[in-house]
């Protein structure tokens, strides 16, 4: 099987990444994020109904009184003693309804409509401060920065500094594209999306390390060839593993996106974009960056001058 020239076509990959990065920046800076109530603040109501109701039924009533952007989640309160009882089987009889902040008149209209159409047994409403979402975001940023610093140190010790920098650049590439696509499609930014962004860090890094590990293994005896050719051969050796890993990861994510509940779809969408971007960046972005930097070293620079034309001729033969 003929090897594909990943490194030789790096200009195309950089141009493609540049296009998506610019598009992502336009989405973030021009269109902006669609923040959920957790970030904008609002009202959170724990509502108990007299009968079993579904999220769709509650959403229909809430939308009819002008609150279509509300977040509705079922609440299940089960104890060991309740398992198998009628109370435990009463799924959907309690809902958490989060809306923008309501004045007394709007609140009364909302719960009058719910009571008339679905029957409200009890409710408790509290105001959600917008600072809670800001706190979550701030902590997520701290966690991401801390993770990148630790990864930078670990990869430098385990492999080398240039690999660690290329891996971190690829992580930023993936996070930026995921956030940009999220902004462009207008999906709601909520804690689930933040969790997905942090999860993407791990997946993207894993795929990159798989490629870098093979490059490191094959770099112990680079003679009569270029570093680019050796790295290209290494990428081709792990290509099917990367493809298979990405596909196996994507299948359950797509299943959640298509068939999961509303609260999981934002998480699944961010994970899907991040997984695709991570699989791409490991091979087409991080590896060419590292190889370009590595070939600036005197030894590999001389090898490229000496054997570069010969290697290109073999690749295009």
TrEMBL record:
Residues 121-295 form the Protein export membrane protein SecD/SecF C-terminal domain. One of its GO terms (molecular function) is protein-transporting ATPase activity. The chain crosses the membrane at residues 12-33, 140-157, 164-185, 191-212, 238-261, 267-293. The keyword Protein transport applies. Keywords: Cell membrane, Membrane, Protein transport, Translocation, Transmembrane, Transmembrane helix, Transport. It is a multi-pass membrane protein. It is found in: Cell membrane. GO terms for biological process: intracellular protein transmembrane transport; protein targeting; protein transport by the Sec complex. InterPro entries: SecD/SecF_arch_bac, SecD/SecF_bac, SecD/SecF_CS, SecD_SecF_C, SecD_SecF_C_bact, SecF_bac. It holds the Pfam family Sec_GG. GO terms for cellular component: plasma membrane. Its main location: membrane. Forms a complex with SecD. Part of the essential Sec protein translocation apparatus which comprises SecA, SecYEG and auxiliary proteins SecDF. Other proteins may also be involved. Part of the Sec protein translocase complex. Interacts with the SecYEG preprotein conducting channel. SecDF uses the proton motive force (PMF) to complete protein translocation after the ATP-dependent function of SecA. Belongs to the SecD/SecF family. SecF subfamily. This is Protein-export membrane protein SecF.
